[in-house]
Write a structure and sequence with these properties.
It is a single chain. This protein folds into two domains: 3-30 and 295-407, Aspartate Aminotransferase, domain 1 (Alpha-Beta Complex), CATH 3.90.1150.10; 37-292, Type I PLP-dependent aspartate aminotransferase-like (Major domain) (Aspartate Aminotransferase, domain 2), CATH 3.40.640.10. It is α/β, with parallel strands linked by helices. It is built from 14 helices and 17 strands. The strands form five sheets. A seven-stranded mixed beta sheet has the order 4-10-9-8-7-5-6, sandwiched between helices. The protein has a four-stranded antiparallel beta sheet with strand order 13-14-17-16, covered by helices on one side. The longest helix is centred in the last third of the chain and has 22 residues, at 386-407. It has helices spanning 3-6, 35-48, 58-78, 92-107, 126-135, 152-158, 181-190, 210-213, 238-243, 278-294, 296-314, 342-351, 364-370, 386-407, and strands spanning 16-17, 20-21, 23-24, 86-89, 113-116, 138-141, 163-169, 194-198, 217-221, 232-236, 254-257, 262-264, 320-323, 332-337, 354-355, 357-359, 375-379.
Length: 408
Protein backbone atom coordinates (compact mmCIF):
# COMPACT_ATOMS: atom_id res chain seq x y z
CA UNK A 1 0.00 0.00 0.00
CA UNK A 2 1.06 3.58 -0.65
CA UNK A 3 0.17 5.86 2.26
CA UNK A 4 0.86 8.99 0.22
CA UNK A 5 -1.69 7.92 -2.38
CA UNK A 6 -4.19 6.91 0.31
CA UNK A 7 -3.95 10.38 1.89
CA UNK A 8 -5.70 11.89 -1.13
CA UNK A 9 -8.95 10.21 0.01
CA UNK A 10 -8.91 12.14 3.30
CA UNK A 11 -9.81 15.78 2.64
CA UNK A 12 -9.25 16.87 6.25
CA UNK A 13 -5.53 16.12 5.99
CA UNK A 14 -5.06 18.73 3.28
CA UNK A 15 -4.96 21.76 5.57
CA UNK A 16 -2.67 23.99 7.57
CA UNK A 17 -2.75 24.10 11.37
CA UNK A 18 -0.97 27.09 12.92
CA UNK A 19 0.67 27.72 9.52
CA UNK A 20 2.04 24.18 9.34
CA UNK A 21 0.80 21.15 7.39
CA UNK A 22 -1.44 19.02 9.59
CA UNK A 23 0.29 15.95 11.00
CA UNK A 24 -2.53 13.91 12.50
CA UNK A 25 -1.21 11.42 15.06
CA UNK A 26 -4.34 10.87 17.13
CA UNK A 27 -6.11 8.09 15.23
CA UNK A 28 -6.19 5.99 18.40
CA UNK A 29 -8.77 8.46 19.71
CA UNK A 30 -10.62 8.82 16.40
CA UNK A 31 -9.53 8.22 12.83
CA UNK A 32 -10.16 10.57 9.95
CA UNK A 33 -12.81 9.74 7.33
CA UNK A 34 -12.20 9.04 3.65
CA UNK A 35 -14.29 10.71 0.99
CA UNK A 36 -15.97 7.36 0.24
CA UNK A 37 -17.52 7.32 3.73
CA UNK A 38 -18.46 11.00 3.57
CA UNK A 39 -20.16 10.48 0.20
CA UNK A 40 -22.02 7.38 1.45
CA UNK A 41 -23.48 9.41 4.32
CA UNK A 42 -24.33 12.26 1.97
CA UNK A 43 -26.05 9.91 -0.49
CA UNK A 44 -28.10 8.25 2.24
CA UNK A 45 -29.40 11.56 3.59
CA UNK A 46 -30.04 12.98 0.13
CA UNK A 47 -31.84 10.03 -1.42
CA UNK A 48 -32.66 7.19 1.00
CA UNK A 49 -33.40 8.72 4.40
CA UNK A 50 -36.30 6.95 6.14
CA UNK A 51 -36.90 4.78 9.17
CA UNK A 52 -36.22 1.05 8.92
CA UNK A 53 -38.27 -2.10 9.52
CA UNK A 54 -41.53 -0.12 9.70
CA UNK A 55 -42.81 1.38 6.47
CA UNK A 56 -43.64 -0.36 3.21
CA UNK A 57 -42.79 2.61 1.02
CA UNK A 58 -39.77 2.80 -1.28
CA UNK A 59 -37.55 4.96 0.91
CA UNK A 60 -38.22 2.76 3.94
CA UNK A 61 -37.34 -0.34 1.93
CA UNK A 62 -34.14 1.25 0.63
CA UNK A 63 -33.07 2.34 4.10
CA UNK A 64 -33.80 -1.09 5.55
CA UNK A 65 -31.83 -2.81 2.80
CA UNK A 66 -28.83 -0.54 3.40
CA UNK A 67 -29.03 -0.91 7.17
CA UNK A 68 -29.24 -4.69 7.14
CA UNK A 69 -26.71 -4.81 4.30
CA UNK A 70 -24.26 -3.03 6.57
CA UNK A 71 -24.89 -5.64 9.26
CA UNK A 72 -23.97 -8.37 6.80
CA UNK A 73 -20.79 -6.48 5.87
CA UNK A 74 -19.81 -6.39 9.54
CA UNK A 75 -20.55 -10.10 9.90
CA UNK A 76 -18.28 -10.96 7.00
CA UNK A 77 -15.62 -8.47 8.13
CA UNK A 78 -15.16 -10.18 11.51
CA UNK A 79 -16.23 -13.66 10.35
CA UNK A 80 -19.18 -14.09 12.68
CA UNK A 81 -21.38 -17.12 12.06
CA UNK A 82 -24.54 -15.16 11.30
CA UNK A 83 -25.79 -11.59 11.01
CA UNK A 84 -28.01 -12.08 14.08
CA UNK A 85 -24.82 -12.07 16.18
CA UNK A 86 -24.07 -8.47 15.13
CA UNK A 87 -25.66 -5.84 17.38
CA UNK A 88 -25.40 -2.17 16.42
CA UNK A 89 -24.66 0.06 19.42
CA UNK A 90 -23.53 3.63 20.07
CA UNK A 91 -19.95 2.41 20.35
CA UNK A 92 -17.56 0.14 22.24
CA UNK A 93 -18.59 1.59 25.60
CA UNK A 94 -22.27 0.82 25.10
CA UNK A 95 -21.47 -2.63 23.74
CA UNK A 96 -19.44 -3.57 26.80
CA UNK A 97 -22.07 -2.16 29.12
CA UNK A 98 -24.72 -4.35 27.47
CA UNK A 99 -22.73 -7.43 28.44
CA UNK A 100 -21.85 -6.19 31.92
CA UNK A 101 -25.45 -5.20 32.63
CA UNK A 102 -27.50 -7.76 30.74
CA UNK A 103 -25.27 -10.81 31.24
CA UNK A 104 -22.92 -10.29 34.20
CA UNK A 105 -25.46 -8.75 36.57
CA UNK A 106 -27.98 -11.44 35.67
CA UNK A 107 -25.82 -14.52 36.21
CA UNK A 108 -22.97 -13.63 38.58
CA UNK A 109 -23.26 -14.61 42.24
CA UNK A 110 -21.18 -13.98 45.38
CA UNK A 111 -17.99 -16.01 45.13
CA UNK A 112 -17.82 -15.79 41.33
CA UNK A 113 -14.91 -13.91 39.81
CA UNK A 114 -14.42 -11.34 37.06
CA UNK A 115 -10.83 -11.38 35.83
CA UNK A 116 -9.32 -8.41 34.00
CA UNK A 117 -6.12 -6.28 33.91
CA UNK A 118 -5.11 -2.81 35.04
CA UNK A 119 -4.28 -2.07 31.38
CA UNK A 120 -7.93 -1.77 30.37
CA UNK A 121 -9.59 1.35 29.04
CA UNK A 122 -12.17 2.60 31.54
CA UNK A 123 -14.92 1.35 29.22
CA UNK A 124 -13.69 -2.21 29.80
CA UNK A 125 -12.95 -1.66 33.48
CA UNK A 126 -15.71 0.29 35.22
CA UNK A 127 -18.64 -1.81 33.91
CA UNK A 128 -17.05 -4.95 35.41
CA UNK A 129 -16.05 -3.17 38.58
CA UNK A 130 -19.64 -2.07 39.07
CA UNK A 131 -21.04 -5.49 38.10
CA UNK A 132 -18.85 -7.07 40.77
CA UNK A 133 -20.09 -4.61 43.37
CA UNK A 134 -23.72 -5.22 42.40
CA UNK A 135 -23.51 -9.03 42.48
CA UNK A 136 -20.95 -9.70 45.20
CA UNK A 137 -18.53 -11.21 42.70
CA UNK A 138 -14.78 -10.78 43.13
CA UNK A 139 -12.95 -8.31 40.89
CA UNK A 140 -9.45 -9.67 40.20
CA UNK A 141 -6.47 -8.86 38.00
CA UNK A 142 -4.05 -10.77 35.79
CA UNK A 143 -0.47 -9.80 36.77
CA UNK A 144 1.48 -8.00 34.06
CA UNK A 145 4.96 -8.56 32.72
CA UNK A 146 7.56 -5.83 33.28
CA UNK A 147 6.65 -4.14 30.00
CA UNK A 148 2.91 -4.25 30.77
CA UNK A 149 2.08 -7.15 28.48
CA UNK A 150 -0.26 -10.02 29.28
CA UNK A 151 1.27 -13.50 28.99
CA UNK A 152 -0.42 -16.86 28.68
CA UNK A 153 1.45 -18.04 31.77
CA UNK A 154 0.08 -15.15 33.83
CA UNK A 155 -3.47 -15.94 32.71
CA UNK A 156 -3.02 -19.60 33.69
CA UNK A 157 -1.84 -18.55 37.13
CA UNK A 158 -4.64 -16.05 37.70
CA UNK A 159 -7.66 -17.98 36.44
CA UNK A 160 -9.58 -20.54 38.46
CA UNK A 161 -12.85 -22.43 38.38
CA UNK A 162 -14.38 -19.46 40.23
CA UNK A 163 -13.66 -17.25 37.22
CA UNK A 164 -16.83 -16.65 35.21
CA UNK A 165 -15.80 -13.71 33.01
CA UNK A 166 -12.44 -12.66 31.57
CA UNK A 167 -12.65 -9.06 30.27
CA UNK A 168 -9.59 -7.99 28.33
CA UNK A 169 -8.27 -5.79 25.53
CA UNK A 170 -7.06 -7.18 22.23
CA UNK A 171 -4.71 -4.21 21.72
CA UNK A 172 -4.04 -1.72 24.52
CA UNK A 173 -4.84 1.92 23.80
CA UNK A 174 -1.79 2.95 25.86
CA UNK A 175 0.89 0.27 25.55
CA UNK A 176 0.15 -0.98 22.04
CA UNK A 177 0.57 -4.61 23.10
CA UNK A 178 -1.50 -7.38 21.57
CA UNK A 179 -3.03 -9.80 24.08
CA UNK A 180 -3.06 -13.53 23.16
CA UNK A 181 -6.85 -13.67 22.87
CA UNK A 182 -7.09 -17.07 21.18
CA UNK A 183 -5.04 -18.73 23.91
CA UNK A 184 -6.87 -16.83 26.66
CA UNK A 185 -10.20 -18.03 25.26
CA UNK A 186 -9.00 -21.63 25.28
CA UNK A 187 -7.88 -21.35 28.92
CA UNK A 188 -11.05 -19.56 30.01
CA UNK A 189 -13.33 -22.09 28.36
CA UNK A 190 -11.49 -24.93 30.11
CA UNK A 191 -12.51 -23.28 33.39
CA UNK A 192 -16.09 -22.61 32.28
CA UNK A 193 -15.57 -18.85 31.88
CA UNK A 194 -16.52 -16.56 29.00
CA UNK A 195 -14.20 -14.03 27.36
CA UNK A 196 -15.25 -10.44 26.59
CA UNK A 197 -12.85 -8.56 24.32
CA UNK A 198 -12.43 -4.81 23.86
CA UNK A 199 -11.59 -4.65 20.17
CA UNK A 200 -11.65 -0.87 19.75
CA UNK A 201 -7.92 -0.63 18.99
CA UNK A 202 -7.53 -3.91 17.12
CA UNK A 203 -10.37 -3.93 14.59
CA UNK A 204 -9.11 -0.89 12.61
CA UNK A 205 -5.58 -2.25 12.31
CA UNK A 206 -5.63 -6.01 11.74
CA UNK A 207 -7.82 -8.82 10.52
CA UNK A 208 -10.06 -10.21 13.25
CA UNK A 209 -11.80 -13.56 13.00
CA UNK A 210 -14.41 -14.50 15.58
CA UNK A 211 -14.30 -18.17 14.61
CA UNK A 212 -10.53 -18.31 15.05
CA UNK A 213 -10.34 -16.24 18.26
CA UNK A 214 -13.37 -18.05 19.75
CA UNK A 215 -14.07 -15.19 22.17
CA UNK A 216 -17.63 -14.98 23.44
CA UNK A 217 -18.26 -11.23 23.11
CA UNK A 218 -16.30 -8.67 21.08
CA UNK A 219 -16.86 -4.90 20.92
CA UNK A 220 -15.58 -2.15 18.62
CA UNK A 221 -16.37 1.34 17.29
CA UNK A 222 -16.72 2.68 13.75
CA UNK A 223 -15.07 6.04 14.38
CA UNK A 224 -11.63 4.48 14.95
CA UNK A 225 -11.75 2.60 11.62
CA UNK A 226 -12.58 5.37 9.12
CA UNK A 227 -16.31 5.24 9.91
CA UNK A 228 -18.64 7.83 11.48
CA UNK A 229 -18.97 8.61 15.15
CA UNK A 230 -21.91 7.36 17.19
CA UNK A 231 -22.03 3.74 16.05
CA UNK A 232 -20.31 0.59 17.21
CA UNK A 233 -20.77 -3.14 17.24
CA UNK A 234 -21.29 -5.84 19.82
CA UNK A 235 -20.60 -9.34 18.55
CA UNK A 236 -21.78 -12.19 20.72
CA UNK A 237 -22.28 -15.89 20.28
CA UNK A 238 -25.97 -16.54 19.67
CA UNK A 239 -26.45 -18.75 22.71
CA UNK A 240 -25.01 -16.06 24.99
CA UNK A 241 -26.88 -13.17 23.38
CA UNK A 242 -30.12 -15.05 23.85
CA UNK A 243 -29.34 -15.37 27.57
CA UNK A 244 -28.42 -11.66 27.88
CA UNK A 245 -31.13 -9.25 29.03
CA UNK A 246 -31.76 -6.10 26.95
CA UNK A 247 -29.90 -2.97 28.00
CA UNK A 248 -32.72 -0.55 27.13
CA UNK A 249 -36.40 -0.87 26.32
CA UNK A 250 -38.80 0.79 23.90
CA UNK A 251 -39.85 0.72 20.28
CA UNK A 252 -38.27 -1.56 17.69
CA UNK A 253 -36.99 -4.15 20.20
CA UNK A 254 -40.40 -5.36 21.36
CA UNK A 255 -42.47 -8.25 20.08
CA UNK A 256 -45.69 -8.01 22.11
CA UNK A 257 -46.60 -5.51 24.84
CA UNK A 258 -49.26 -6.43 27.39
CA UNK A 259 -50.37 -4.33 30.35
CA UNK A 260 -48.12 -6.10 32.84
CA UNK A 261 -45.51 -7.85 30.73
CA UNK A 262 -43.76 -7.67 27.36
CA UNK A 263 -41.73 -9.92 25.10
CA UNK A 264 -38.73 -9.07 22.94
CA UNK A 265 -37.95 -9.51 19.28
CA UNK A 266 -35.47 -12.11 18.15
CA UNK A 267 -31.78 -11.33 17.65
CA UNK A 268 -30.34 -8.91 16.74
CA UNK A 269 -33.21 -6.44 17.17
CA UNK A 270 -33.73 -7.42 20.82
CA UNK A 271 -30.86 -5.04 21.69
CA UNK A 272 -31.66 -2.21 19.26
CA UNK A 273 -34.42 -0.24 20.96
CA UNK A 274 -35.69 2.93 19.31
CA UNK A 275 -34.78 4.22 15.88
CA UNK A 276 -31.40 2.63 15.16
CA UNK A 277 -28.27 4.40 13.97
CA UNK A 278 -29.16 4.00 10.30
CA UNK A 279 -26.82 6.49 8.66
CA UNK A 280 -24.02 5.38 10.98
CA UNK A 281 -24.46 1.80 9.82
CA UNK A 282 -24.35 2.93 6.18
CA UNK A 283 -21.13 4.85 6.93
CA UNK A 284 -19.64 1.86 8.75
CA UNK A 285 -20.43 -0.34 5.76
CA UNK A 286 -18.63 2.13 3.47
CA UNK A 287 -15.64 2.20 5.83
CA UNK A 288 -15.43 -1.61 5.75
CA UNK A 289 -15.50 -1.53 1.94
CA UNK A 290 -12.68 1.03 1.97
CA UNK A 291 -10.48 -0.90 4.41
CA UNK A 292 -10.99 -4.20 2.62
CA UNK A 293 -10.11 -2.68 -0.74
CA UNK A 294 -6.75 -1.63 0.71
CA UNK A 295 -6.30 -4.82 2.76
CA UNK A 296 -6.05 -5.22 6.53
CA UNK A 297 -2.83 -7.21 6.27
CA UNK A 298 -1.24 -4.41 4.26
CA UNK A 299 -2.45 -1.81 6.76
CA UNK A 300 -1.03 -3.79 9.68
CA UNK A 301 2.37 -4.23 8.03
CA UNK A 302 2.53 -0.55 7.08
CA UNK A 303 1.80 0.53 10.63
CA UNK A 304 4.31 -1.87 12.17
CA UNK A 305 7.06 -0.48 9.93
CA UNK A 306 6.00 3.06 10.79
CA UNK A 307 5.99 2.40 14.54
CA UNK A 308 9.37 0.69 14.37
CA UNK A 309 10.78 3.67 12.49
CA UNK A 310 9.30 6.04 15.06
CA UNK A 311 10.66 4.01 17.98
CA UNK A 312 14.15 4.06 16.52
CA UNK A 313 14.02 7.84 16.08
CA UNK A 314 12.41 8.64 19.44
CA UNK A 315 14.78 6.41 21.43
CA UNK A 316 17.64 8.61 20.27
CA UNK A 317 16.15 11.69 21.94
CA UNK A 318 17.49 12.12 25.45
CA UNK A 319 14.86 12.30 28.16
CA UNK A 320 12.08 10.52 26.24
CA UNK A 321 10.55 7.61 28.17
CA UNK A 322 8.53 5.12 26.07
CA UNK A 323 6.00 2.75 27.66
CA UNK A 324 5.05 -0.73 26.54
CA UNK A 325 6.76 -3.49 24.57
CA UNK A 326 9.49 -2.75 22.05
CA UNK A 327 8.63 -5.73 19.85
CA UNK A 328 5.32 -6.77 18.22
CA UNK A 329 3.89 -3.36 18.94
CA UNK A 330 0.72 -2.05 17.35
CA UNK A 331 0.12 1.36 15.85
CA UNK A 332 0.82 3.71 18.77
CA UNK A 333 3.59 4.99 21.02
CA UNK A 334 2.91 6.38 24.48
CA UNK A 335 5.70 8.43 26.01
CA UNK A 336 6.79 11.23 28.31
CA UNK A 337 9.54 13.84 28.14
CA UNK A 338 11.46 14.42 31.36
CA UNK A 339 10.23 17.43 33.37
CA UNK A 340 7.59 18.35 30.77
CA UNK A 341 3.90 17.78 31.44
CA UNK A 342 2.23 15.94 28.52
CA UNK A 343 -0.39 18.68 28.14
CA UNK A 344 2.35 21.29 27.74
CA UNK A 345 4.18 19.06 25.30
CA UNK A 346 1.04 18.49 23.23
CA UNK A 347 0.38 22.24 23.16
CA UNK A 348 3.83 22.96 21.77
CA UNK A 349 3.51 20.17 19.20
CA UNK A 350 0.14 21.60 18.14
CA UNK A 351 1.86 24.91 17.43
CA UNK A 352 3.75 23.01 14.73
CA UNK A 353 0.57 21.41 13.38
CA UNK A 354 1.18 18.04 15.08
CA UNK A 355 -1.84 16.46 16.78
CA UNK A 356 -1.11 13.97 19.58
CA UNK A 357 -3.12 12.83 22.59
CA UNK A 358 -2.17 13.85 26.14
CA UNK A 359 -3.66 12.82 29.48
CA UNK A 360 -4.45 9.56 31.26
CA UNK A 361 -6.03 8.03 28.11
CA UNK A 362 -9.05 6.75 30.07
CA UNK A 363 -6.68 4.32 31.82
CA UNK A 364 -6.00 5.73 35.28
CA UNK A 365 -5.21 2.36 36.94
CA UNK A 366 -2.56 1.78 34.26
CA UNK A 367 -1.10 5.26 34.79
CA UNK A 368 -0.65 4.40 38.48
CA UNK A 369 0.97 1.08 37.52
CA UNK A 370 3.37 3.02 35.27
CA UNK A 371 3.96 5.50 38.14
CA UNK A 372 2.96 8.51 36.06
CA UNK A 373 -0.01 10.85 36.24
CA UNK A 374 -0.34 11.28 32.49
CA UNK A 375 1.45 10.70 29.20
CA UNK A 376 1.51 11.71 25.56
CA UNK A 377 0.50 9.35 22.76
CA UNK A 378 1.21 9.34 19.05
CA UNK A 379 -1.04 6.92 17.18
CA UNK A 380 -0.65 6.06 13.52
CA UNK A 381 -2.96 4.83 10.79
CA UNK A 382 -2.96 3.91 7.12
CA UNK A 383 -2.63 7.55 5.99
CA UNK A 384 0.49 8.34 8.04
CA UNK A 385 3.96 8.41 6.52
CA UNK A 386 7.62 8.49 7.58
CA UNK A 387 7.47 12.23 6.96
CA UNK A 388 4.85 12.44 9.72
CA UNK A 389 7.24 10.61 12.05
CA UNK A 390 10.04 12.98 11.07
CA UNK A 391 7.80 15.93 11.87
CA UNK A 392 6.99 14.43 15.30
CA UNK A 393 10.66 13.84 16.10
CA UNK A 394 11.56 17.35 15.00
CA UNK A 395 8.69 18.74 17.08
CA UNK A 396 9.84 16.83 20.16
CA UNK A 397 13.35 18.20 19.80
CA UNK A 398 12.03 21.75 19.43
CA UNK A 399 9.75 21.27 22.45
CA UNK A 400 12.66 20.03 24.57
CA UNK A 401 14.73 23.01 23.49
CA UNK A 402 11.87 25.39 24.29
CA UNK A 403 11.30 24.02 27.79
CA UNK A 404 15.01 23.84 28.52
CA UNK A 405 15.30 27.54 27.66
CA UNK A 406 12.21 28.48 29.68
CA UNK A 407 13.28 26.66 32.84
CA UNK A 408 17.07 27.05 32.59
Amino acid sequence: MNAKEIRQYFPILNQQINDHPLVYLDSGASSQKPIQVIEALDKYYKYDNANVHRGVHTLGNRATDEFEGAREKVRAFINAREAAEIIFTRGTTTALNIVASGYARTYLQPGDEILTTVVEHHSNFIPWQQAAKATGATFSFIPLAEDGTVTVEAVKQAISDKTKIVAIHYISNVLGDTAPIKEIAQIAHQHGAIVVVDGAQSTPHKKVDMQDLDCDFYAFSAHKMCGPTGIGVLYGKRELLEKTEPFEFGGEMIDFVELYDSTWKELPWKFEGGTPIIAGAVGLGAAIDFLQEIGLDEIEQHEKKLVQYALEQMEQIEGVAIYGPKQNRSSLITFNVTDVHPHDLATVLDSYGIAVRAGHHCAQPLMRWLKVTASARASFYLYNTEEDVDALVSGLKKAKEYFNNVFS
